[in-house]
Predict the structure.
Amino acid sequence: MPWFTKEKKISLEVLLEDPPTDEKSRVNNIHTSQNSKLIREKIRSWIKDNRLVLFIWILALALRIISAILSKGYIHPDEHYQSIEVVFNKIYGFGFVPWEFTEGARSWFYPGIVYIIFKVMIFFGASSIDSILIGVRLFSGLLSMISVIVAYYFGKLIFNKEAGLFATFFIAVWYDFIFWATRTMTDGLAMNFVFLATYLIYKGANTIINDTSDTKKQKRQSVGCFIFAGMSIGVAFMFKFPAAIIALPLLIYLVIKKKWIGMFVFCFSILFIVIIQGLIDLFTWGTFLHSAIVFFNYNITSGSSSLHGTAPIYAYLGLFAYTYSFFALMYLLYLVIGTNKNKKAFFLIVISLFFVLVFSVIEHKEYRFILPILPLFVLIAANGMNRYPQFIKKKNLRKSVHVFTTLFIIFSSASIGFFDASFRPNYNYCQTFDYVKNHEEITTVILIRENIFNTPGYAYLGSELHIDIISWSKIDKVYSEFKNSSICFIMTEEIFDNRPWIGLTFQKNNISCVFSSIGIMKHKEAKLCIYQKNN
C-alpha cells in the first residue's frame, strides 16, 4: 500500500472518532442554550399575544386567594360535616361524625386530602380552625383555576377567541364562581373536572388529522385528550359521585363522531380511576366501591334523599334566576343569542340540559347539584355576548356594547356578591362557638331548638364539651340540673323575644346575654345569642 494511502486512511479514522469530551460538552451546551432561548422566545411571544387573558387569570387567582383568606362559615351542613368535622375527629379524637361516615355513604378521598392539608397547616404553626381552613380553601381555589383557564381555550376552540375571552372573564370575576371556588364542598371541585373533560372530548373528537408528517403526532394528541378526559371524569366521580353522569352524553357524542378508539380509551380511563376509588373504599370501608353503592342506594334506590326536602321539576330554573338576580334576564338574552343558528352551541346545550334534566327528576334539589355544568352555560352566553353587537348596524357602537357588558358584569357581580349574598354564611354560629371556646369556665352547651348539624361542631369548639339539644319548653328542667355558671344557652333572638317567660326565668336565675352575633347578612341570618349565669 502506498504511503499516501495509509496516511489518508489514518486521517479518515481520526475524523470518524468521537470528538473529545470537552468538545461534546461544548456542543451539548450550545444545543441546550439554543433550546432554552427558543423556549424563552415562545414564552415571550405567548405573553405578548395574550396579555389580556393573562391579566384576567392573574385577577381570577388574586380574587380566589382573597376569598380563601376572608371566607368563613359554611353554606350547608355537608360543607362542614362531610370533611372538616370528620377530619378534626380523626386528628384530635373527638367531634361529631355524621351517618355517612358511620355507614360509609361517602368516600374518604376528599377528607383524605383535607387531612393532609390539616397536617401541613398544623406543622407550619396554624392553631385555630379558621387559619387551618385557609389552607383547605386555597387548595379549592387553586383547583378552580382549571375552569377559568379551560373557559378561554374551550371558548376559543368551539367559537372564537373573543368568546373565549368573555367566558374566562366571566368565570374569573362572577361572584358565584368565586364563592364556590373556595368552599370546602365537593360540588365545586367536581365542576372543574367535568368542564375539563367536556373540553378534552370536544377537542379530541374534532382534531383534524391530515396526511402529513405530523399525522402520528396529531393522533397521539387526540388519544391523549380522550385519556385525560376519562381520568377527569373519574376524578369528578371521586369528588362527587353523581357528577359522573356527564360521561353518558359525552360517550354518545363520540359515537356520533365515530371515534371508536376514543370511546375505548375514554371508557378505559374512567374505569381505571373508578377502580382506584374502589380500592380506597376497600381499604377504608372494607368493601370495593362501598361508598358509591351506599350513596346510590340511599339517594336513588330508596329515594331517601327526599327526606331532606322536595321541589318541583322546574325548581332549578327558579334557583338559577334567584342566584343571578337582576342579571338573569341579560344572561338569558345572551344564552338565546348564543344558541341561535349555531350547531356548535347545540353540543353544549344538549349536554347541559341532559345533566339538569336528570337532577330535575330527583325530588330533592339544591343549587349546588348543578354546579358541574354551569361553565358550559357560560360558554354559550359568552358566544351570545360576542355575537350581540353584530345586530347593531352602527359599527362604532359595537365596541361600546362590549365595554358596557363588561362593566355591567363587574357591577352585577359586586352588587349581588356583597349585598345579596355572603362569603361568610352561618358565621354567627362560628362566632358563638368561638366565644365558648375562649371561655374555659363553660363546660356545658345547651342548644335551644337547634340541629347539631346546623352548628360548626367541635372543630370550632376545640374541646370536648358536653352539648345538649333541647326544646325551649325544657329550659327550666335543664337549668335545675345545672345550677352554676359552667352552663350556657345558645338560641336565636326570635325564640327569646317570642317567649317572655324565658326572659323571666333567666332574670330570676341571674342569667343574661353575654354575647350575640348576627353574622354578615342581617336580612338573612338570625341573631344568635349566648346566655350565661352571672358570677
